[in-house]
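Worked example 3 (structure in, sequence out).
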């Protein structure tokens, strides 16, 4: 019985230990999981490389942009400008015709308005009459000169005759044939003849002076006639100025209240004409942007109205000073509270684009980019760059 009991006990132990066999199988699979630690190190290296590569790329890219930059100077503080002409009349009068309206486009030579010409036509007729009278007066002066010459010749003959009579009377008186009273009479006649000759000679001088010192002077060269002609030209000019025409191509502005019947004075501004044929840009660059900028450099203009259109321009001039220097109340920095602020200097650019036919208007905002031809370059980093050195 004991032997049987031991066999059964051993069989029971075997059955109890038999289910434990499958649980041991996962323990055998565990060792292959240990090599996973190696891929974790590779991922950390890749992440570290990416973390370092991105800042390095940014530094290299930024450095390249800085080194090769500085050639193109740009500002958005710019406005398009066109000449504004104040239209006024050179003569006073009442408006009888108005050929324009506010914001109307006109060409050079187009009629703007007309003043009543009748008073000026009358003045011109009077000036013509004055010219004719002056010419007639010159002819009269020339005749007076000829008369003075004839009178001088006649008086000269009288002097010769009186002189011969005096000589004959003196001979007779010396011989005792003639009375002394006859000699005195002959002497008196001679003196009168000489005085009349002197008066005639003065008449010649006066008549010659009236002819401007030149008896053969042309009638229209005489000072009196020249003065009359000048007055006549002035009257003709005033008559011509009663018709006012456009001095250039442009757009009429501020003419809404300009009407027929209005009386205008000479030189009084009436309205404005914005010339479209002369366009330039005033760009306010920072003083730090003007290091290599100079007249003659090329530039590109982009007007806000036409964002996709680029206009060609050229730097014409750089302002004489900052805007603060020409303000009505310039800043006083001697009070001790001075703060350094980057100043702006106006730069004028002339449009050179022959295709700039769009409706450009004065005052439009623009973006200006000037090609100075000078980049910073590597020498500038180490302080060896020369002034104006062009970096290729």
């Amino acid at each position: 019985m004991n032997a049987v009991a031991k066999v059964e006990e051993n069989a029971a132990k075997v059955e109890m230990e038999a289910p434990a066999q499958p649980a041991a199988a996962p323990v055998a699979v565990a060792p292959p999981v240990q090599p996973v630690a190696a891929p974790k190190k590779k991922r950390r290296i890749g992440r570290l490389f990416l973390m370092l590569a991105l800042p390095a790329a940014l530094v290299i890219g930024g450095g390249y942009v800085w080194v090769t930059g500085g050639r193109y100077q740009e500002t958005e503080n710019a406005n398009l400008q066109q000449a504004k002409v104040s239209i006024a009349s050179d003569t006073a009068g009442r408006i009888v015709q108005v050929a324009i309206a506010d914001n109307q486009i006109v060409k050079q030579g187009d009629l703007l308005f007309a003043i009543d010409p009748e008073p000026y036509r009358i003045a011109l007729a009077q000036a013509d009459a004055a010219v004719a009278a002056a010419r007639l007066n010159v002819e009269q002066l020339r005749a007076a000169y000829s008369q003075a010459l004839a009178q001088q010749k006649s008086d000269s003959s009288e002097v010769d005759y009186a002189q011969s009579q005096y000589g004959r009377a003196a001979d007779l008186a010396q011989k005792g044939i003639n009375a002394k009273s006859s000699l005195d009479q002959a002497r008196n006649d001679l003196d009168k003849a000489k005085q009349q000759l002197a008066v005639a000679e003065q008449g010649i001088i006066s008549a010659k002076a009236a002819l401007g010192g030149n008896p053969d002077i042309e009638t229209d060269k005489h000072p009196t006639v020249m003065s009359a002609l000048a007055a006549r030209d002035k009257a003709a000019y005033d008559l011509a100025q009663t018709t006012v025409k456009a001095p250039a191509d442009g757009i009429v502005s501020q003419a809404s209240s300009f009407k027929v019947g209005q009386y205008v004075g000479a030189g009084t501004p009436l309205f404005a004409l914005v010339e479209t044929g002369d366009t330039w840009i005033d760009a306010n660059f920072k003083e730090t942007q003007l290091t290599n900028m100079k007249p003659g450099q090329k530039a590109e203009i982009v007007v806000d109205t036409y964002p996709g259109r680029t206009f060609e321009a050229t730097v014409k001039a750089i302002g004489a000073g900052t805007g603060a220097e020409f303000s009505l109340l310039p800043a006083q920095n001697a009070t001790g509270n001075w703060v350094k602020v980057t100043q702006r200097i106006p730069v004028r650019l002339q449009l050179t684009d022959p295709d700039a036919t769009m409706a450009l208007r004065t005052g439009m905002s623009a973006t200006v980019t000037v090609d100075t031809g000078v980049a910073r370059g590597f020498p500038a980093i180490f302080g060896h760059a020369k002034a104006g050195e062009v970096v290729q």
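Notes: The CA atoms of residues 102 and 257 lie 9 Å apart. Residues 118-174 form the longest helix (57 residues).
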